[in-house]
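Following up on my earlier message about alpha-L-arabinofuranose. Here are the inputs again, as you asked, copied directly from the submission form:
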Amino acid sequence: MKRFFNNPDSAGCGQQTMRQFSFFADAGCGRQTMRQFSFIPGAGCGCQTMKKLLSSLLCLSLLTGIAGTCGCQAKPETEPTDDNVFVIGFSQVGSESDWRVANTKSMTDTFSDDPEYELVMENARQMQENQFTAVRRFILEGVDMIIIAPTVEEGWLTVLTEVHDAGIPVIIMDRSVAVWDDNLYLTNVGSDFLRQGNLAVEWLEKETLKDAENGDESEDGTVRILHLQGTLGATAQIQRTKALEDAVASHGDWELISQLDGDFTEAKAYEVMTTYLAGNHDIDVIYSENDNMTFGAMRALDEAGITYGEGGQVKIITFDATKEALQYCLDGKINLCVECNPLFGPQVKELIEAYRRGDTIPKHVYVNETAYTAKDLTQEFVDTREY
Ligand code: AHR
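Thanks, got it. Here's what our run produced:
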């Protein structure tokens, strides 16, 4: 466990002064906690007036560290365990992509500066089982709300029913869950992944028409599309894939030459692309379901000596539009960046505040997004990109 204290003075046993410090932990279990505490060291052991089991557990973990350091008994006190602090358990997918890192930062930045909130994040390392464990721990800890960014859509009914039975409201964030009863969550906030996919195929349709007009199409007129898919079963994969598969079905000259599972990571995409390129070079388009997979694919293409981007053999379509991908786009290495905006921490907070005021909140909230080609970009725009 890695802990960072801005006032880690745990040796002042016997002092009765209240102190505050921040606690940021990335425990082996994947928990990252950003919160503020006050405590009174040296006043005997045990937590007084704990209103939440969560706080008790945190006290225990703190006590272990403090007692181990100064060899005396320390007594944690209450803040922010008073009733005014709204504790949110957040089950995040992982840190598989630059998008995800930006999304986590948006969430932690949004809540860490506000003393009315405490955000406890569990990193599921892209495993749904870890999310179930985290959510069940949040229930035991008695948090005020649970936010889930689900790895995949299926399999949530049991655990969401448990949360519902515990009376804890849930927000589904980023991706979606496939449950028949949408009363199991308050709202689902995130991207419209199908729209993103449709933006991509609409662009490709125009480009291939232009190529045909200019005589730039392949010899037999076929558009050979290699599809790099994200984590199978994730909404971002399902919807982006649907847009492409529907478009291929309605374009007689489009051929889906292969679908490779890149799991939304650069390393996996590089691996599957390298294997694929060992036997096949006849590719016109790569439709890559996120930027990190695109970076892996670009590396594999470079090693295989295949050109891509403006004027290259392969057109590249990527999703997320992170700063790095936009720079490649501006430099002519990526043809289209479809935006997937991860910076919706503030929007999530607004929804929570509306819920706490008793306002009705919509069942689905989409974030604003667009798509970029090089002509839509300037260096200044890329330089000031937040993620
Ligand atoms: O769910 C959002 C998708 O997941 C983003 O496109 C991707 O980068 C992330 O891993």
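One observation from looking it over: The pocket of alpha-L-arabinofuranose is lined by residues 96-97, 99-100, 174-175, 236, 264, 290, 319-320, 340 (CB under 6 Å). Hope that helps, and feel free to reply on this thread.
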